[in-house]
Every structure is written in C-alpha cells, then in structure tokens.
Amino acid sequence: MNMGKLEKYELTISSNEIKSTDSRFTMDDLSLGDNYEFLDVFFINSNDEIIRRNKKKRERNKSNQVLPRLACQIFEKKILELSKKDRENFPVCQYNPSSPMIRGIFSSESEFKRKRNTIEYVGYHCEGDSTLFFYCWNIFSTLIFVKECLKRFGTEADKFILVYKDKDGENEAMESNLQIMAIEEHIRSYSDLLLSSKNIVFRGAPGTGKTYLSKQIAANIVSNGRTSDINSLSQDEINQIDFVQFHPSYDYTDFVEGFRPSEAENNQIGFTLKPGKFKEFIGKAQKFETEDRQDNFAQAWGKFFEAVTEAMETSQGYNELKTLTGKPMGNIVSYDNNGVQGIFKKGTTQYLNYNQIYNVYRGLPGVPEGGFDNYRKAVVKHLKEKFGLEDYIVGEVKNDKDKFVFIIDEINRGEISKIFGELFFSIDPDYRGIKGAVSTPYNSEEKLYIPENVYIIGTMNDIDRSVETFDFAMRRRFTFVEITADNSAQNMGLNEETKEIMHRLNNAIVDEGHLTQDYQIGASYFKNLDEGTLSIKNLWDYKLKPLLNDYFRGERLANDKMRALENAYFGTSED
C-alpha cells in the first residue's frame, strides 16, 4: 500500500506565483483538484499575522469554498470598490492553457446564473447587505481568483497557505455520490414545480435535452422520488407514463376520441367510437385518485436540521439520536451540498439525506438497493418524538403509485385548442377533477374530466419558425420553463472539458453570430463527446456545422460567422 497517499501538502499563493509541496501540482491542469481533499487555509500578511476565515452560520469548516471566502473576507472592501465592468471581467478559473478563462464576480445568485447557469459557485455575504457570487468547484478552481486578488489589492509579502491531502477511496465515493445527489435534487426541483402547477412546457434551443429531462421528471414523480432513470422503473410505473408527439395533422380524434373504421356484419365497413391516446391515459389515472393526505415531513426536518447545525457550532455535533434498539448513535453532523441536505456520523462517510429519510417515512425503501434503513427509521422515530412529525397518511388510496405523467413532445406543432377540444377547459389546474367534467361531442351522456393525479409536460423548440405560438388562453394553463444550454449541461452531467467546448461555441453564437440565446446549442449534442461515440471533429462536421449553416443561410456574412464559430469550437484563432 502507498503510505504516502494521505500525506499533507501545502500550497502557497502569492501575487507572483503559486507553488505546492506536492510535486504533481501544475497550473496547467487545475482539474487535478478533483483528486484532493481540503484540510485548512489561512492568510499571512506582511506583518506575519495569521488570519483565518471568520466563519458565518452554517458554513462548513472543511470545504472547497473556504479559500475563496477567506480571500473575499481579506479584500472585501477593495472588491466592492471595483466597477461593475471590472467585476464582471475579473479572472476566476482557467483549468488548462487551452480552455477559456472563466470570469466574473456577480452581486447575486440570479445574476451569476444568467451568465453561467450551474451549481458550481460560491456565495459570500459581505458585512453590509452586499453579496458576491462567482465560479467555484474543486479545491484548485479559485486559485487564479485568489492570486488576482493578491496582485491587485495585496502586498508582495502577503500570501495564502492552502493545506490539503489526497482523497481516499471512501471520500471519492462520497464526493461522487454528493454530485449525483445534487443532480437528483435539481431534477426534484422541476418535479416539485410540476406537482404544484399540473402543466409545464419546457422551451429552449435545439439539443437542450427537453425531452430527456421530461422523462427524468416523469420517472421521478411516478416512483415517488426513488429514481429519475426511466429504465429503472417497474412495469406498473412505466404504465403511469405516456408519450405523444404533436404534428400539424394531429387532431382531436387521435388525442381524445373519434370514430374509426371497423368491420361490421356481412363484411361491411362500419365506424366505431374509440378513445384517443389521452382519453385512455386519463381513464387509467382515474382509478388511482387520492385525497386527504397527511405529510408534515418538510417542517419537522427543517427544525431537526437546524438543531443539528447549531450543535455543530457549539460542540462536537448533535448527540441525541439513538438507534431503534436505544443505542446512542454518537456525534451527528449536517451537510448542505448546494441544496442537498443530510446528516452523517462524525468520522464516517455513511450519510443519510433528506430524500432517503423521506422515502422511509412514506414506507418506501430509502434507496433502491436498500441498506441502512434501520438508521433512517431511527431518524423518523426521533423526528416524531422531538420535532412534531405526524404519521404519514395517504388517504383513501388504492395504490401508492398514484401519479400519472403525460408527455407531449413538440406541443406547439399542433393546433392545441382543436386537439384538446372541450378538455381545453378541463386542463386548467383550477378545474381538475369532477368539477371540471365536460361532455364530449360524440357521447353527450359521458362526462370526461382530467383527474387531479394527472400531470402534463410539453416541450417546444424556441427557433421552430414553422409553427404559431400559443394563444393567451393556452399560455395561462401552462407554466413555461426555459431550459438553456447551461441548464442542459448540468442536467446531463457533462464533464468539465466538454462543458468548456460547449461554452466556447455558445458564447460565439451570441458574440460572433449575433444571435440570441435561443440559438445556443444544448448538451445532448455534446454528450457524444463524453460517450466517445463521436470525435470533436466528427461532431462538428456531421452534427453542429449543418445546424449552424441553417442558422445563417442566405446571410451575406455567413461564411465569416461560420469561420468564427469553428475557431471558437476548436479553441483556435485566425492567423
């Protein structure tokens, strides 16, 4: 065994250089920071005074965000004095010499996400009401930012010392799991929006993975949060999802009901009233409607999580949790990884997160493969005894898998009001259930309605010039959510190198091609690079170039724009 693997290393950042006691360190590949674990950081000024991070409430002691926050703490006043333009151009990270420089210090999370919609950032709260947000991911991702702060605002003798070590196998697994959990939490946020609004339309540029995301959300909802992978669903759960693609000739008889040719007696051709795809679907869903649910888990968890976090600040951790057999669990600490909350026993990597414990509360396995559910049950028991958690009651449900999701791909390519017909009224979230029942043209005695447990997802391409937009009445019935190219990179989990290629091209589409963000290209195209199914050159030649040529077809400067986009994609410059 390599006993040097857990050796501590010191990295020194000054205004002139960045050097480490680790011989493997190089500024030419900062992605190596994924392999290391933060231990400590401090600032030494010209008087040899050591300054550490003045940690705010709920900040983690050991995190890749401590270094950039300490730099902001030391140079807060100087950073705030920068003009808006200087802040937006402030260098933060360049993973290697051929990748673009990531720039920008922003005054709010929303402002940062307008530039780079990702979970990879750090937030810093200034002494007043101001906030600073900028890019941050692995332990080395803000070294350039810190060095630039020293160069602009510090003295030659000022320096930061970062102490770190190699990750061991358990920590690597936990880090990977936390990243997967962050993506799952991102999917869950869309699921929560659909559950509350009933109808959603995802709109965006080509390749942003709107259909892929729709299927992930559908899987998440019908499995009650167990999985976002549609291939991991049971057959019963798959039956709770249906899919259709609209086109200009799609009509009411395909969607709701209509007369279809059938063979009558004496071999004569007759016509029989048959349900369309959506009517069949809502018929299945009506068998599983539920009401009178009791569930206050979110409120009880919030109180518990706050208690654990406060205990971390005043002692070694929260020590009131016991196993189902009454044995103390030891010191419990909390974590919040970009919105993914959970707890784990200090000194171990056996973590329990919100979603897993919530599944157990509802009588489901914490995770599909099982394991550690007795610990999760112990947490649920503790929440009931100490934090007012009530028993979970589903109500008069015939099956706990009671949610149904209908996906309409390219929803704006059909004549919506004609396809839905009288269900145009019933689709309104305020008129779901029996109160929204309507008669159909072909069977006035039958009352048709959309059950409360049916959720509709539509997708539409922003640059499809061949179709008309929704009318106002239809827009009122749907919640519209834009999926940007950056959103898609996060949803599909592109690796860093592939994301940088995508960002280069998309920035050029706006800056050099003079098009809007609606024309930026999504991650589903670039996923081919991660999967190794296409080379960088073949992706350009066979996928991207034909699409971009269509964008500029007939323009006088089309060739110049295409050349600029090609240079941006390959990271080259014109001679």
From TrEMBL:
Example of a GO MF term: ATP binding
Keyword Chaperone found: no
Domain AAA+ ATPase: start-end pairs: 196-488
Pfam families: AAA_5
InterPro entries xref list: AAA+_ATPase, ATPase_dyneun-rel_AAA, Methyl-DNA_Rec/Restrict_Enz, P-loop_NTPase
Keywords: Endonuclease, Hydrolase, Nuclease
Name the record gives this protein: Endonuclease
